[in-house]
Amino acid sequence: MKQTILARRYAKALFAVGKEQANYEEYNQALQGLAALYVSKPEVADALTNPLYPLDIREKVMAGMIKSMGVDKIMGNFLNLLVQKKRSEILPEIAEEFQAMVDDEKNISHGNVISAIALSAELQAGVQATLEKLTGKKVKLTTSVDASIIGGIIAKVGDLVLDGSIKTQLAGLKDSIKGRE
Q1: 39: helix, coil or strand?
Q2: What's the confidence (pLDDT) of residue 180?
Q3: Contact 138, 158 (CB under 8 A)
Q4: What is residue 155's three-state secondary structure?
Q5: 82-105, pLDDT tens digit by residue?
Q6: Mean pLDDT value of segment 158-169
Q7: 3-state helix, strand and coil shares in percent for the chain, rounded to the nearest 5
Q8: Which H/E stretch holds residue 140?
Q9: Model confidence pLDDT, tens digit, residues 54-87
Q10: DSSP type of residue 181
Q11: Can you give the pTM of this predicted structure?
Q12: What domains lie within the chain, and their CATH numbers?
């Protein structure tokens, strides 16, 4: 079960401290690394979250991870707090929320472009430039291919959706013809 609100609170607190200390990017790297470790090595997540292990053992596991990562005292205390409060299982969600805060601070948006065929690098750069001009932010694009849209593209950045697919245009044409009958 996702605990986005709780994760956002922890991320917001760490981000505020990181911004004040001017090292929120280091915190972000540490959190993203731990989140990736949780996904790639489920035994790590189990060692930190399983209630069958005593709290002191889970704290020792986290202390070993903190030492090997070489993070500062504030980040170390934050990670220890997650273990002590039994919140280690939401670490990947905290990392996700923290990344969103970092991106917002750097004026970066994430966008998705769906096309009927794979886009060339030149066309992708043109779409990215157009979306950056429309949103006023730097846009990091991910592309995907969906042959069902027949042609054109669908671009999404945050709440902005630009649908120039032939499938949507045909659906609109169908509705307008039905409306005339």
Answers
A1: helix
A2: 74
A3: no
A4: strand
A5: 999 999 999 999 999 999 999 999
A6: 92
A7: 65, 15, 20
A8: strand 138-145
A9: 999 999 999 999 999 999 999 999 999 999 999 9
A10: -
A11: 0.81
A12: 4-104 (1.10.520.20), 108-180 (no CATH)
